[in-house]
Design a protein that fits this description.
The complex is a heterodimer. Chain A is an alpha/beta fold. In chain A, about 30% of the residues lie in helices and about 25% in strands. In chain A, strands 5-4-1-2-10-9-3-8-7-6 form a ten-stranded mixed sheet, with helices on both faces. Chain B is an all-alpha fold. Chain B has helices at about 25-60, 65-70, 85-115, 120-135, 140-155, 160-185, 185-195, 200-225, 230-235, 255-265, 270-300. The longest helix of chain B has about 35 residues, at about 25-60. Chain B is flat. Chains A and B meet through helix 2, helix 3 and helix 6 of A and helix 7 and helix 8 of B.
Chain lengths: ~290, ~300
């Protein structure tokens, strides 16, 4: 794997079985639900991220950390083809989901996003009522059954139901930032994706709201697989089972691009990093 | 009063002087000048508006009654009395038909430009043409419809007037709607996309509702402007003296054309009718405004 790339420092260790794993379901604990193989993302001719190989373990939280501009958000968005509408954006290598290449010719990005949802950095509720926000995904996906029950279930799972149950018809824009972000999570889980991608979901929130979202993430791993991009190393250490450390490198042609430096169990990465660059970053000597 | 320690008196120099007197004379003078200039500008802007409204209401109210609104236009300008019903019917039908053609087309055009075309050559060309079309004088548009439609079907009709007005409204609707769509944050489109919505679904259920109140305002401005157009109506719709409810058969007329014809005669009775028509037109446009505001407030989501 990635033998053509001598700089690869990643050793995707699929056989990791972290203690206290919450995995359940048909697949064995820690089995990867997604797998990146030598994934590079290009914007036009510029290679933003080079040669990323890492697994996403089922029912676990995988964190991506690293300094600004290291391509972690770019990789995250490649996982559900959110880069598609950007003119010139292109992905090479393989992003597989249950063994299926997401970038194969006959794959419909709409179907991909129905199974792999996303929560964004800035809370972005629709300018609609709280109820309509959560019901939106259900409606467009033609999910039948009692909409009220689905909405209540999603809001309960997102730990927001008690705060909004009396004002479901009020505008979502009247909620606080932290509530809006939990509403966005509720909106995402309402359509029952398998994987939820979170792009710095707490960076616009205060510490109390952040703590709520973090608790929620741990809770959600019972039913979902979570991939989170964060600037906050403590957050990665608190919530994730596995951590990928990215950094920006300048190659021989003086072109800057993102690289995955190290991927391992979160405990190991933070206490006993294999790579000097990881150690420098997590000890605050760099970035 | 209990015996308390005397308050600690701070030395006068402890803090900066925060009173207005601390400002230099020059700054105070400039502040006064700016305030006066702003109020003066507001007054100057309101005076013509108030005078126009006052004159039209006073002079128009003299002839305003039920028979003015329901009566036919006299065949002779000299005759006293009569009404404006044919022109009212014509204005409502012609402007309504023009809006029916121009607003959906314009909004769809704007959706293409902002959501699909973006900076593609075709989109840029359309944008340029719309900007040029905005500047085309209405009489030129009237002549264009006269040549390309009236001469083709062989008669002046209300529909020809609606076509001319629609051509005038279209670029305004396109450009104002596009501006409103551009204000919709990209985060909303991404959120919808991440939920597995297709682009047309996102546009229809997220982007358009978010922009609807602005789009309505823009469309309304275009309707109001079209309702007051005179030249194309005179050229392509002809004139009638009894209401013509059929836009596709026979000549028609509209309030601005009647204002022009009656006001430019020397007969006091005709001039009175012109004032009445002017008042009626203002009230109709006001009515459009209120209806549009009501519709957009029904669609728009409240902030709180």
């Amino acid at each position: 794997m990635a033998s053509n790339d001598t700089h690869t420092t990643t050793r995707p260790s699929v056989a990791i079985h972290p203690a206290g794993t919450t995995a359940s379901g048909t697949e064995p604990a820690g089995a990867p639900v997604m797998q990146l193989r030598d994934v590079s993302v290009y914007y036009g001719s510029y290679e933003a991220v080079r040669g990323t190989t890492m697994p996403i373990q089922q029912n676990q939280v995988t964190a991506m950390i690293g300094p600004s501009g290291c391509g972690k958000s770019t990789v995250l968005r490649a996982l559900n083809r959110m880069n598609d509408p950007i003119p010139g954006a292109r992905v090479s290598g393989e992003v597989s989901f249950h063994g299926q290449d997401l970038y194969a010719r006959d794959v419909d990005p709409i179907q991909v996003r129905r199974h792999i949802g996303m929560v964004f950095q800035k809370p972005n509720p629709f300018p609609k009522s709280i109820f309509d926000n959560v019901a939106y995904g259900l409606r467009i996906n033609g999910i039948k059954g009692r909409l009220d029950d689905h909405v209540e279930e999603a809001l309960t799972q997102a730990a927001l139901w008690d705060e909004v149950k009396d004002k479901l018809r009020k505008s979502a824009l009247a909620l606080s930032g932290g509530q809006q972000q939990r509403l966005c999570i509720a909106r995402t889980i309402a359509v029952k994706p398998e994987v939820i991608l979170m792009d710095e979901p707490c960076s616009a929130l205060d510490p109390i709201a952040t703590a709520k979202i973090e608790d929620l993430m741990v809770e959600l791993t019972n039913d979902y697989t979570i991939v989170i991009v964060t600037h906050n190393m403590q957050q990665a250490a608190r919530v994730s089972h596995h951590t990928a450390f990215f950094t920006a490198e300048v190659d021989e042609q003086q072109v800057r691009h993102g690289r995955l430096v190290e991927f391992s169990q979160t405990g190991k990465l933070f206490t006993n990093p294999a790579d000097k660059r990881t150690e420098d970053y997590i000890t605050g000597r760099f970035g | 009063m209990t015996a308390t320690a005397p308050p600690v008196t701070r030395p006068a120099a402890a803090g900066p002087d925060l009173t207005r007197a601390a400002l230099s004379g020059g700054r105070r003078l400039r502040n006064h000048l700016a305030t006066t200039a702003i109020w003066g500008a507001v007054l100057l802007a309101v005076i013509p508006l108030a005078l126009v409204t006052y004159t039209v209401v006073v002079k128009g109210a003299g002839v305003m009654n039920l028979s003015f609104l329901t009566g036919d236009i006299p065949n002779s300008y000299r005759r006293v009395g009569g009404g404006m019903a044919p022109a009212i019917v014509g204005t409502l039908l012609i402007t309504g038909m023009a809006a029916l053609m121009a607003i959906p087309l314009g909004v769809f055009g704007a959706v293409y430009l902002n959501e699909y075309g973006k900076q593609r050559p075709l989109a840029r060309l359309i944008r340029l043409m719309a900007d040029v079309m905005t500047g085309v004088p209405s009489i030129v548009m009237g002549l264009f419809i006269y040549i390309s439609w009236v001469l083709l079907v062989g008669e002046q009709t209300g529909f020809a007037g609606a076509l001319a007005l629609a051509c005038l409204m279209l670029p305004v609707v396109i450009r104002s709607s596009e501006e409103m769509l551009r204000l919709v944050p990209d985060e909303l489109r991404q959120a919808s996309m991440a939920l597995g919505a297709r682009k047309w679904k996102t546009t229809l259920t997220v982007v358009l509702p978010a922009a609807i109140s602005g789009i309505t305002s823009g469309a309304l401005l275009a309707v109001a402007r079209a309702a007051g157009e005179t030249a194309p109506i005179i050229i392509v719709t002809g004139i009638v003296f009894a209401p013509n409810w059929n836009l596709f058969d026979g000549s028609n007329t509209a309030l601005p054309a009647q204002i022009f014809r009656n006001a430019s005669t020397s007969f006091p009775a005709a001039q009175d009718r012109a004032w009445g028509a002017a008042l009626t037109l203002i009230v109709i446009v006001l009515g459009f405004t209120i209806i549009a505001r009501f519709i957009s407030s029904r669609f728009a989501i409240k902030e709180r």
